[in-house]
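Q: How do we represent a protein-ligand complex in a form that can be generated token by token?
A: Start from the inputs.
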Amino acid sequence: MTGRGRGIGTLAVHGGEPAVRGSRTITEPLVLSSTFPFEDTAELEAFMRGEIERPHEYGRYGNPTVAALEAKVAALEGMEAARAFASGMAAVTTTLLGFLRPGQHAVFTADVYRKTRLFAVGFLSRYGVDVDLVEPTAEAVEDALRDETRLVFTELPTNPYLRVPDLPRIVEVAHGRRAKVVLDATFATPVNLRAVDHGVDLVVHSTTKYLAGHNDVLGGVVCGKRGVVEAIGELQGTLGAIVDPHAAYLTLRGIKTLELRVRRQNETALALARLLDAHPAIARVHYPMLDGHPDHAVATRLLAGGGGVVSFEFEGGLRAATRFVDALEIPKLAPSLGGVESLVEQPPLMSFFDLGPEGRAALGISEGLVRYAVGIEDTEDLLDDVRCALDRLG
Ligand code: PLP
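Then emit the structure tokens for the protein with pyridoxal-5'-phosphate bound:
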């Protein structure tokens, strides 16, 4: 089934699937085969000439279960093609390596996932790509564009401050200078944002998060126009960061319930953000669907929901944040987000620990910051648990 006219819940279940499979199974078979033998030389030659459809000849170039995942994500995003990877970072790095050449310039919005930013600044620049990191606003992106800018990479909502840059405007200014726009839509999900409607050229996801959704598998994906995605796929076949068919199967299975899960996560996160916003121990809440968020107007225009992550800062700094996190009973203390289990973390003690207090201050990471990624538990149970933990602060 193609994407036309169907809701995202229907696409999550049926998108990219044939009406009836050749195997007559309702689920996609998990195909475990590292190589795919040919009948004879005539079949081999017909395949090489592109005259027949059959599995790729070798597992690093393709696999039927992986191809089914790619077709489903392409249908969800309403894009021509997708390519699945071993992790979100494999999708990001392979895409960037496939796109950029020495002497070219790329603009990254500063609040992108930390490892993406480190790859851009620490790695791409070593290979002669000029990189600018700018504020996550369309104005800052526009100011940074040059004749040799080939690519703008942005993310929304960002991590940890849930910023929502004006995507249509970023696309407009980038395209005006013939630069392509790559969006990391991991936090937005295809449920909350249809990036293709805003002219985005390539969408990447860490499927580890909402798409697979069960905190049990890592993966990534890039989608876009067929020619571009195939070129990235060629590079992937050389670099080798392919997704294992088991992981692809789990991701496919997870996607079936994507819309239900994200809808619940949107609702719970908004309720949590409102509860925290009204509490005297909390200095600031970062959630794009709250009136006070700097990008609230853009967020309500672009997004169907704010997603499952809420960040907030304690008046009492690191100590109060730690006491709160340790008093919570339901969420697990762990990095990641988007799965069925709620997870909580203190960015100063986890993703930004290595920077020390001064380094964190330079990046604007507050010491009292907590990031709460809601799962699909009962909303009232999660809120009660938070209320109790806040009460224990005294
Ligand atoms: N992009 C975003 C927004 C992320 O949050 C993450 C991981 O947390 C990644 C990319 C990387 O994904 P993975 O952990 O699957 O490599």
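The pocket of pyridoxal-5'-phosphate is lined by residues 87-89, 92, 113, 155, 159, 184, 186-187, 206, 208, 218, 220 (CB under 6 Å). The domain at 258-391 is CATH 3.90.1150.10 (Aspartate Aminotransferase, domain 1).
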